[in-house]
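Ticket #4471: complex job returned nothing on first submit. Input attached below:
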Amino acid sequence: MKQTPQLPKGTRDFYPTDMRVQNHIFSIWRQAALKFGYEEYEGPTFEHLELYTGKSGDEIVAQLYNFTDKGGRALALRPEMTPTLARLVIQRGNELKKPFKWFSIPRLFRYERSQKGRLREFFQLNLDIIGTDSISAEADLLVAIATMLFDFGLNEKDFAIGVSSRRLLAAFLESLEVAEPNSIYPILDKRLKMPAEAFEKELLNAGLSEEKAKTLNAFMSCASIEELKNFDNLSNAIAELEELFELLKAAGVENCVKLDLSVVRGLAYYTGIVFEVFDKAKNMRAIAGGGRYDSLTETLGGQRATGVGFGMGDVVLADLLAEKNLLSQSRSDLQIFIASFNNDMKILFKTATELRKKGISCSHSLNAVKFSKQLELANAANAKCVIFADGKESKNGTWEYKILATGEQGVESLENILRRTKI
Amino acid sequence: MKQTPQLPKGTRDFYPTDMRVQNHIFSIWRQAALKFGYEEYEGPTFEHLELYTGKSGDEIVAQLYNFTDKGGRALALRPEMTPTLARLVIQRGNELKKPFKWFSIPRLFRYERSQKGRLREFFQLNLDIIGTDSISAEADLLVAIATMLFDFGLNEKDFAIGVSSRRLLAAFLESLEVAEPNSIYPILDKRLKMPAEAFEKELLNAGLSEEKAKTLNAFMSCASIEELKNFDNLSNAIAELEELFELLKAAGVENCVKLDLSVVRGLAYYTGIVFEVFDKAKNMRAIAGGGRYDSLTETLGGQRATGVGFGMGDVVLADLLAEKNLLSQSRSDLQIFIASFNNDMKILFKTATELRKKGISCSHSLNAVKFSKQLELANAANAKCVIFADGKESKNGTWEYKILATGEQGVESLENILRRTKI
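Support reply: We reran it on our side without changes. The output follows.
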């Protein structure tokens, strides 16, 4: 016998039990996005390679599934959705009435070492607002994140949204008269991953004086907007953060959002507020991350269009939900299994059509098997209820039934059977 | 300015208006599959190349998006779902209780000349039943096809399902004592695309006597099971077809299914009943196609598992639905747009949270703009209704509102506003 081909590394199969969990995640994502007035869009699974190298430079190629097609085109499976979104925005230009709020649930691909919380193929919810400078856009996104995590059953004890500001960091580095702020960001990004002395040493190596390094360390320790006010020259950036937190308070999600200057993210890309969502214990990778990117369409050769958005992957989220016991196995969607004492396939098909015309999901044995075997099949299919068809019952509108979860049986109209089944 | 990257050839962008149409198709597909008790599954977007070459030989590579990943693996974007399904079945072996009914809506990729009805990237509904030899499985699939096409608003005048039988053809060719039946199938497949004389000539070239060629032509012209009975040695295959048509009649879909011996399909693959769905005018490519494949898992190195299934692509289906005016632009899903006379963003955020907690989808301006501009935004967002928030209305539970489609306005409770909006 030949060796059977295996699942490619870093990808997943979704058997029906896995798919039900996955559909639960998609459903909460989609409902939340619609509840906030975001409209769904999609793009192709692969794009021209230059869409990614144009935005992030050639280094990104190492993390891509890129290939040349039979027509000689350099293509790449999409590693993120934002470049596709930028392309869509550029293509339609002024035809699109701005601002607009869009969402998508793309499948994404990254050639990375696969490990806990990180796969080579995954799904990612994206919410973006294009065409407004208003901090209300950031607020709308952050409220949406908190709301959807609540909708999954999580609460403020389970996750925290950390917010920082690119503008704030830039203003502070400017006030410190740092010659090359871009060389400092990577150090700030690692701050929490090293001892305080090591952090200060790296700053000294980067050319900062001992005094400036101490000031910067003190600044980065700020955990509230009040503390930020001890520093000069930050009033614009602070005002923006204050406005943001006031809106979050009005929306009732202030308890899950906090100032967190350790959130730095890819700074070549973001231009304003940046944020990341973590499990409270910070045992996992980020659940979501995003921020304002006001120059992306220009970078790609289009007109300027301001943007702010975030991505939330399915892998870390599912890990957290599983840890909190919020991904309980749902049963299948099958409402009724039709069984027949006399094994008449024609009666089974006829009855199934009758039920489906009423919008009821139903199934039945596809083989003429004995009654006990049909009940086994009903159980295997996870049907909620079995009804017994011998071609007569439907005449007076009642059916003999058995609810599988409780064992309750009787004779009732379909309506009543469905009502009892839902209990 | 740099040239903006373009959409890759043969793929599609789905702006929100396109996505609503696409989601309508997905929704009818999914509801129909669930109504028939099929359970959803998914697999990875790419597989090891050998999964496809193992089934269809190396010729298929010309039509694939295949590539070598950075770890040296030969991979291919999936051109169809059946090989992945076979892999899933082989992997779990006897753990999976058979028979089972599964569906999937994979995104598929074929490197072909893109033209009307055929793209390089498309979606395809797949329904499959694994693990039963019973003709009821074919019946279940055919009833599901007819039902979902009805659910789209099509009727028997719009489409026809043509059914043929690999077994019937084989039995007939055997009774004709044709030496190499496999050389005849490609000729049968082309029969309707050439004049009758040309068809007979090809049969003569393939080594058939003039008499056998005439008999074969007469056989292929049979349009009903009754006519088939004029030929000998076909009783088993005819009995199977008769049983199938009886079940289709019991399910009430007999008017959209007919015997059609011109349906041949890839015969290396199928082993029993085969079928194709066409628009009645036969102006388009096939809407769907499928059949019984009883040796696929064995071909791939696994245990034998009988299967029967079909695929229905989104492209031809959408063309047909558009032609019949059955893809009318649905409005957005946004129920309520919240406007504010005094531009208080905090009240807008607070009100939005209130409404969303009741499960209502709502949005509002993200900038403090004047009232008339807010109404413009409500129209642009295609909201069904605008309510006016000044921070007081919610106290007595009523809101000033305006329904955008009718212009109706008044002051009502949210419940009543939603009720009126749905009219």
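Chain B has two domains: 16-323, 336-422. Closing as resolved unless it happens again.
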